[in-house]
C-alpha cells in the first residue's frame, strides 16, 4: 500500500475513496494499530488503543467542561421558564409565579435571562402584557438580590423611601 501511495495512487484512506476529507488538506488519522503502517510504527504490545477524542477532551479541559455544564444547566432553566410562561394565564398566575420563583434563580445572569424571556413573551402577547408586568413586579419583590446592600446608594438604582 505504501508503494501505491508513493506512486500517487489512491489508498484506502484517501479523500477520493469517500473518506470525507477535504481536498488538498493533509489527512489526520487516529493513532491505532490498524493504521500504524502509515504512521511509521509497527503494531505490537505497546500499540496504543484508540480512545475517542470526546473522552480525552473531558479530562483535558475540566474548566471548559465545567463552563459547558453550567451553560447546559442555564439552558435547562431557561427552557423551564419558557414552559412556565407558555402556560401563564390570569387563573394560573399565583401557582406559576411560585413555580417561576423556585425554578433555580441562583445568579444574576440567570435572573437577567429570566427577565429577558418575560419581556420577549410580553412583546409577543400584548393581550397578557399586564400579567407579565405583574410577574416582573413579583420577581423584583421576591427574587434574590445579587447586588448586595452596597448597590442601594448608586445612581440609576431605584431607592426605596
From TrEMBL:
Alphabetized GO MF terms = RNA binding; translation initiation factor activity
Q: Provide this UniProt record's keywords sorted from A to Z.
A: Initiation factor, Protein biosynthesis
Q: Which SUPFAM superfamilies match?
A: ARM repeat
Does this entry carry the keyword Protein biosynthesis?
A: yes
Q: Which Pfam families match?
A: MIF4G
Tell whether Protein biosynthesis is among the UniProt keywords.
yes
Record-given protein name = Eukaryotic translation initiation factor 4, gamma 2
Q: Which organism is it from?
A: Mus musculus
Amino acid at each position: 500500500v505504501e508503494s501505491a501511495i508513493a506512486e500517487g495512487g489512491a489508498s484506502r484512506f484517501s479523500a477520493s475513496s469517500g473518506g470525507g476529507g477535504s481536498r488538498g488538506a493533509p489527512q489526520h488519522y487516529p493513532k491505532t494499530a490498524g493504521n500504524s503502517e502509515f504512521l511509521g510504527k509497527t503494531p505490537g504490545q505497546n500499540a496504543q488503543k484508540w480512545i475517542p477524542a470526546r473522552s480525552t477532551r473531558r479530562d483535558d479541559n475540566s474548566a471548559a467542561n465545567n463552563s459547558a455544564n453550567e451553560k447546559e444547566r442555564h439552558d435547562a432553566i431557561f427552557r423551564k421558564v419558557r414552559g412556565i410562561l407558555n402556560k401563564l394565564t390570569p387563573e394560573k398566575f399565583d401557582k406559576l409565579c411560585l413555580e417561576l420563583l423556585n425554578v433555580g434563580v441562583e445568579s444574576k445572569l440567570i435572573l437577567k435571562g429570566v427577565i429577558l424571556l418575560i419581556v420577549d413573551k410580553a412583546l409577543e402577547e400584548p393581550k397578557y402584557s399586564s400579567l407579565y408586568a405583574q410577574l416582573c413586579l413579583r420577581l423584583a419583590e421576591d427574587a434574590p438580590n445579587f447586588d448586595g446592600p452596597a448597590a442601594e446608594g448608586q445612581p440609576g438604582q431605584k431607592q426605596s423611601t
